[in-house]
Design a protein that fits this description.
It contains nine helices and twelve strands. By secondary structure, it is of the alpha/beta class. The protein has a single domain, classed as Alpha-Beta Complex (Spore Coat Polysaccharide Biosynthesis Protein SpsA, Chain A), CATH 3.90.550. Strands 3-2-1-4-9-6-10-12 form an eight-stranded mixed beta sheet, sandwiched between helices. Strand 2, helix 3 and strand 3 (about 60-65) form a beta-alpha-beta unit. The longest helix has 16 residues, at about 220-235.
Length: about 250
């Protein structure tokens, strides 16, 4: 069984849409729970979202969590009563059903695997990763956590690193790089990329995400996270070119 964790921020219209990809994926029998992390602090859940969840027939699978502050760390909180297999997904991303099924197939072979649908290669000069991997998937060493599957134990391991939590609350960026370092430190397993032409950003509203709220340049923030993680954990990210096409 799979628990999906999906943070949402200022995307009420997305979750009110009957075509929302993640809400529809939850109809799959592999999914036992969808945790929606409600980052709209102090706001009530609109009836349009509740009605949409009800109309899609997934009421029994959906659970809202209400953190006390906006934080990218909330994506990785070790929530109670979740399955061993966890999917982290952005609220604006199309993590297709066939990708989900293939990710779960590969993860079931090795529970220490970090497997997902968006690879990136990060190093000293390509810390954002788009230049290396947006059109060329020859190599990668990171799986973005906007569409990734892993064992729930890595949530607890992430939250044990209090200095990292503080850094993320300062920068509001680079949580995927940070999580990959935590995962690699404890698993010593290379990530795995599932290639699916259907995987894409479902909707995008520029400037309407938690990460967009913070101060200086996006790439500068990611570079700082990369440098601090490399300094703390070493040059441990494993470069691979393996991919499975679905």
């Amino acid at each position: 069984m799979i628990t999906i964790i999906m943070p949402t921020y200022k995307r009420n219209d997305f979750l009110s849409d009957p075509k929302h990809p993640t809400l529809n994926v939850c109809k799959n029998e592999l999914i036992n729970k969808l945790i929606i992390v409600w980052q709209n602090i102090g706001e009530e859940i609109p009836n349009s979202i509740k009605d949409n969840i009800n109309d899609l027939g997934i009421n029994d699978k959906v659970e809202f969590k209400f953190p006390t502050k906006n934080s990218l760390n909330n994506r990785f909180y070790p929530y109670e009563y979740i399955s061993d297999c966890v999917v982290s997904v952005d609220d604006d991303y199309n993590f297709s059903e066939k990708s989900l099924v293939e990710c779960h197939k590969q993860w079931s072979l090795n529970n220490d695997l970090l497997v997902g649908v968006v690879p990136r290669f990060v190093n000293e000069t390509s810390y954002h990763g788009n230049a290396a991997n947006k059109d060329n998937e020859e190599k990668y060493n990171v799986i973005l956590t906007g569409g990734a599957m892993f064992h729930k134990k890595y949530l607890s391991l992430y939250y044990k690193e209090k200095d990292n939590l503080k850094l993320m609350d300062e920068l509001f960026n680079g949580e995927d790089i940070m999580f990959n370092y935590i995962h690699k430190t404890h698993s010593n397993v290379a990530p795995l990329y599932i290639h699916d032409d259907e995987v894409k950003t479902w909707k995008r509203v520029q400037g309407n995400s938690i990460a967009d709220r913070a101060g200086y340049n996006h790439q500068q923030k990611r570079h700082r996270v990369y440098k601090e993680m490399k300094s703390k954990y070493g040059d441990i990210l494993m470069v691979t070119n393996k991919k499975i096409i679905v």
